[in-house]
Amino acid sequence: MKKIVVIGSSNVDTTLHVKDFPKPGETINATEITTAAGGKGANQAIAAAKSGAETYFINRVGEDSEGGYITHQLKSYGVDTTYVQTTMGVKTGHAYITLNEAGQNNIVIDHGANYELTVEDIKAAGDLIKSWDCIIAQFETPIEVTTAAFKMAKKAGKITILNPAPAVEEIPEELLKYTDIITPNETESAKITGIQIKDKSSLAANAEKLHLLGVKNVVITYGDKGSYISTKDIETLIPAYKVEATDTTGAGDTFIGYLASNLNEDLSNFEDAAKIASRASSIAVQRLGAQPSIPTAQEVEQAMEDE
Fold first, then answer.
1. Each residue of 208-247: pLDDT tens digit?
2. N or C: which end of the chain has fewer CB within 10 A?
3. Which residues are 161's β-sheet partners?
4. 66, 72, 76, 81: CA torsion to nearest 10
5. What phi and psi, each to the nearest 5 degrees, are found at residue 306?
6. Helices 270-284 & 297-305, crossing angle to 10 degrees?
7. What are the binding residues for K(+)?
8. CB of 290 closer than 8 Å to CB of 249
């Protein structure tokens, strides 16, 4: 069984369901309002757990009922919450999502307790990070915390996966030095590289720029067009499975959790792992909500057999 540690965010997601996104200055009506657990880190941890990996989550929640709700949800999906801590006097992170009828979304985040995660928290989980197979992190917690964790993991010979979301224009060189795989979507990649993605050639240019920044293995998720893989041995666009999207929230997180849990230690099956991750995402987008939409390994396996 693969062993994965996810360092990152947990949020309560409030989703406003609308016909279409409002234009600047426009007031519109929501057709429905729903609430669910989310956060990129928590979503990725749950995806890894549902794919069959033994998964730990390192995170901070607030001193409120929502923190308890987050922890309960993680446990219910099989994620170990030993390193999920409560921060006194701080609220749990919250995401406000607008979801249109086409299944597309935009998101505003109030980080809350997520930004209270510290390097000392990483040191406290040091034995775990040094002994597990793979470490995943995003940018919804402090970058210096991720850098400390990746440095520790790489010194122990473990795989590190960075999901640079929300994107920043300049990722610290030290963090990239300890990153094995970077997994931006097309918008995030363009912000990092300064190269807009319009076609396969611009995908290749983005991947090359990310390699020049110091990361050997690049995966650019490209929505309903698929995922672009660029390593020393592979340069290919893996097409997305054609489905009717209901809600794309958490699709990228599902991809990352499944990719991590299916990768060989030497990354020799990168393309096959990405295909499995893509299939998992195609199932997730057909369902509402981030965490509830993530399929089980059995569902993904059955879907691939039915092709």
1. 999 999 999 999 999 889 999 999 999 999 998 989 888 8
2. C
3. 136, 181
4. 110
5. -80, -5
6. 100
7. 247, 249, 284, 287, 289, 293
8. yes
In contact, 19 and 28? CB cutoff 8 Å: yes
Q: Which of 20, 127, 253, 272 is catalytic?
A: 253
Q: Helices then strands (H, E): number in the chain?
A: 11, 13
Strands of the sheet containing 159-163, edge to edge, are 84-87, 54-62, 3-7, 134-138, 159-163, 181-182, 217-221, 227-230, 235-238
Q: Do 105 and 82 meet the contact criterion of CB atoms below 8 Å apart? A: no
- pTM for this structure? 0.92
Within the chain, residue ranges assigned H as helices are 40-50, 65-76, 119-124, 126-131, 143-155, 173-177, 186-193, 200-212, 251-262, 270-284, 297-305
- Distance of alpha carbon 208 from alpha carbon 218, whole angstroms: 9
Structure confidence by residue, pLDDT tens digits, 66-103: 999 999 999 999 999 999 999 999 999 998 999 999 88
Question: Helices (DSSP H) in 77-165: which residue ranges?
Answer: 119-124, 126-131, 143-155
Assign 246 to helix, strand or coil.
Answer: coil
Q: Measured between alpha carbons, how far is 239 from 20 in angstroms, rounded to an integer?
A: 27
Q: 220-230 burial by CB neighbour count: b if 16+ within 10 A, else e?
A: bbbbebbbbbb
Domains of the chain as residue ranges with CATH: 1-6+38-89+113-304 (3.40.1190.20)
With contact defined as beta carbons under 8 Å apart, do 182 and 207 qualify? no
Query: Which residues are known binding-site members?
Result: 11-13, 39-43, 140, 185, 221-226, 247, 249, 252-253, 284, 287, 289, 293
Q: How many Cβ atoms sit within 10 Å of the Cβ of residue 103?
A: 18
- C-alpha distances (whole Å) from 129 to each of 10, 30, 61, 157, 240 are 19, 43, 20, 10, 32
